[in-house]
Write a structure and sequence with these properties.
322 residues, mainly alpha, three-stranded antiparallel β-sheet, two-stranded antiparallel ribbon, 2 domains
Amino acid sequence: MTPPDSNEPRPASKGAGIYIVGALAVAAIVGAGVFWFVTAPKPLGDDRIAAIDAVDADAARGETIFWAGGCASCHAADNAEGEERKILSGGHRLTSNFGTFVVPNISPDPEAGIGGWSLADFANAMLAGVSPSGGHFYPSFPYGSYVRMTDQDVADLFAYLGTLPASDKTNAAHELKFPFSIRRLVGGWKFMFFDDGPRVELANADDQVLRGQYLVEGPGHCGECHTPRNALGGFRSGEWLAGAPNPEGEGVVPNITPGGPDIAGWSASDIAYYLESGFTPDFDSVGGPMVDVQKNMAELTASDREAIATYLKAVPERPNGY
């Protein structure tokens, strides 16, 4: 009888195989638990909600935030003019690499719109991207910028929206590609990209620059279009306001940092006048999606437009992001 070769590999024991399977099962359970925790919607805490509820809301102040936030640009009917821009029936289609997002009705209608929402519901949507039912909103709704808004402005805006005409229009659901249609995955996006810190650190900024920073980085959400994004839809690091491909069609969204070729040579006064009138320093006029944005900016006070312009001259210069 020939003895076995001592160098020949021996099959793994049954016990070792069971151990490996068990370890993999535990790892899978732990991984699933971590995923579930990380991607869970995280609404505002009770203390923050109580602070917002305690705010003395003013609808007249809320109108300023309405125009600064560009609510009509997305939520009014396409090509709406005049008072029709205050009918926030939704329906606009936002195309992207992830699919098409359909803008919702946010009029005071209690069924089709947000007339049945509480201030807490609205604050959670604006500041945490969480719906009244406790799910994630997609970041096509720019709560990644709105998170920088003050409690006062959130409460004032909600009060103003309640004064606008109601619309009973219902809209289609989003048309998203798999796996982006899995809403829970938005929690992973938030984990990586959602925070309330300043987009840029500005040394020795005066009150005017800080006001401009608040308007641009917060309610104005200018970076949502003017900053390039990575494959997951997060802002590319170090390219704040450097311009980006137009997500809704041909062309690009301009680089609006100082010295960027799109506004090279513009002074703060030139920028402020453009936001007021729609005319560039070389007598060209605003075009494309910026038409609606400029209409909103024209509704602001001159001091707010000047603050925005001053901030745009203070941010770091960046090469084109497109």
